[in-house]
Design goal:
This protein is α/β, with parallel strands linked by helices. Helix content is 52%, strand content 7%. The chain contains 18 helices and 8 strands. The strands form 2 sheets. A 6-stranded parallel beta sheet has the order 3-2-6-7-1-8, with helices on both faces. It has a two-stranded parallel ribbon with strand order 4-5. Helix 6 packs across helix 7, helix 8 runs antiparallel to helix 11 and helix 9 packs antiparallel against helix 10. The chain is globular, with a radius of gyration of 26 Å. The two termini are 44 Å apart. The mean pLDDT is 90.
């Protein structure tokens, strides 16, 4: 194809997109994804490159060619909003392909919901309580707070109130579940790692005087001198303040494990569970040969959205069920990985490429044309992301704009205070916003707290925002 962006007028997808009521035909890159056969496929899709439309068109095209039936399609993504969008796009296109309502529609779920359904349907096979009540994050936090209040241990080293201590403990509990770790193996591995770190940080000569970290450890040692932590505490008391704080952080994590052990036991006693528990159960369920085969037969085409954000447990589950050459289309962008705090990693994309193909290598395609940004904004984004491209294990090319894109403007402002920074943002919005044209403006901030402050300032200026 000579045109790197547009399909030839006679291409079948041009006509199919018209039949489906799409305002524009797919690009050449999108067409390669849409028409790819039923085999493992990795799609590196940049921001604003039309990945949701491409996935929906892939389903519609394969159904139109009678390669799959609608009910044989499984689509997984992370949020309920993304699920609703993908489900709506696929159902809309399928209704036009089939010229009638789809009687048995595709299964479009969040990753958590899919794991929960597996746990519910097959949990009894591995002795799980399938009637366990799914609790909310707030209810889980309340349960952990109850445990913290009655805990007999010494948690003074963490220097946290009950609410904060419970929040830290529950966060670690979820991280452990997402990484398929139980308390005993975490306790053993964390102690081994902590001693290794302490050995590396140990000074040749102890500091001449005590510092805040060594004093804190000395006070803690009075009630913990006989515990497994005693050697680590002793080493920490010979260190500089900076090194001592590292040891305090490691000991603090170790102390949380007693709370987590009680938390896991209490959930079983109460007959309650969390999404992370369901995913861990689903991983065990996926090892049952008949279940594994039944799901591969049920879903001949699997779409995995935002694959770079899958946790260790989710990756293990999906690889167990749909690895070894099944028709899985994984879509992601290593530059948009946002769930590292719970065990997700952009490395998941490389793992997919290396482990899902069975005996054949997995094909990697890309969507690099973005229709969301002006050229100058994209130039800045590409420049900012260059270090990520250099260190990544997946080839990611810079994003490009179509010839019709506007140049746009990029401005940088440095304000002397946070308040004046917000004022600068509000002034720019007031100047640029033209609500009668149906345009929207996005404001990005590093924290939710900052977003709330900006939103309040916009409300004060009677600028609607959400």
């Amino acid at each position: 194809m000579s045109d790197p962006l547009n399909l030839p007028a006679g291409h079948r997808l041009v006509q199919l997109s018209k039949d489906l009521g799409k305002p524009f035909p797919p690009t050449v890159q999108q067409a390669r994804v849409i028409e790819y056969p039923l085999a493992p496929l990795l799609v590196v899709a940049g921001a604003g490159s039309g990945k949701t439309t491409t996935m929906a068109m892939r389903v519609a095209s394969l159904v139109a060619e009678n390669q799959v039936q609608p009910e044989e399609v499984l689509g997984l993504t992370f949020t309920r909003k993304a699920t609703a969008n993908l489900d709506h796009d696929i159902r809309t296109l399928l209704s036009r392909v089939k010229s009638t309502d789809v009687v048995l529609p595709p299964t479009i779920r969040t990753y958590d919901a899919f794991a929960s359904e597996l746990a519910k349907e097959y949990g009894m096979r591995i002795g799980a309580n399938t009637d366990a009540h799914l609790i909310t994050a707030g209810q889980a936090q309340q349960l952990m707070q109850q445990i913290v209040r009655s805990a007999p241990g010494d948690y003074s080293l963490l220097d946290l109130n009950i609410q904060s201590l419970a929040a830290h403990a529950r966060t670690l509990a979820v991280e452990m579940r997402n990484n398929l770790l139980d308390v005993d193996e975490t306790r053993t591995e964390l102690l081994r790692y902590s001693m290794e770190v302490a050995t590396q940080l140990a000074p040749e000569k102890p500091p001449r005087s005590a510092n805040a970290a060594t004093r804190k450890l000395a006070a803690f040692a009075k009630t913990n001198s006989t515990s497994q932590l005693a050697p680590l505490i002793d080493m920490g008391m010979t260190m500089t303040a900076e090194a001592g704080n590292v040891i305090i952080s490691l000991i603090s994590r170790y102390l949380l494990l007693d709370l987590i052990e009680e938390y896991q036991q209490r959930k079983v006693e109460l007959g309650v569970s969390e999404f992370a528990d369901h995913t861990a159960l689903a991983v065990d369920i996926a090892q049952l040969p008949d279940v594994h085969q039944a799901l591969r037969n049920r879903y001949r085409l699997v779409l995995l959205d935002e694959f770079q954000d899958t946790s260790v447990a989710q990756l293990h589950l999906l690889r167990s069920l749909f690895g070894n050459g099944h028709a899985v289309t994984a879509v992601g962008d290593p530059h948009q990985a946002i769930y590292g705090w719970r065990g997700a990693s952009a490395q998941a994309l490389a793992d997919f490429r290396d482990t899902f193909g069975g005996s054949e290598p997995v094909t990697q395609l890309e969507l690099t044309y973005t229709f969301r940004n002006a050229k100058s904004i994209l130039d800045l984004a590409n420049h900012t992301a260059q270090p990520l491209r250099e260190m990544g294990t997946i080839d990611v090319h810079p994003l490009a704009v179509p010839p019709s894109a506007q140049d746009g403007q990029t401005r940088i402002a440095i304000a002397p205070s946070e308040r004046e920074e917000f004022e600068t943002v509000a002034h720019a919005i007031t100047t640029l916003w033209q609500p009668h044209r149906g345009e929207t403006i996005a404001v990005l901030c590093r924290t939710n707290q900052t977003l709330r402050k900006v939103a309040q300032l916009l409300h004060d200026r009677e600028i609607p925002c959400k």
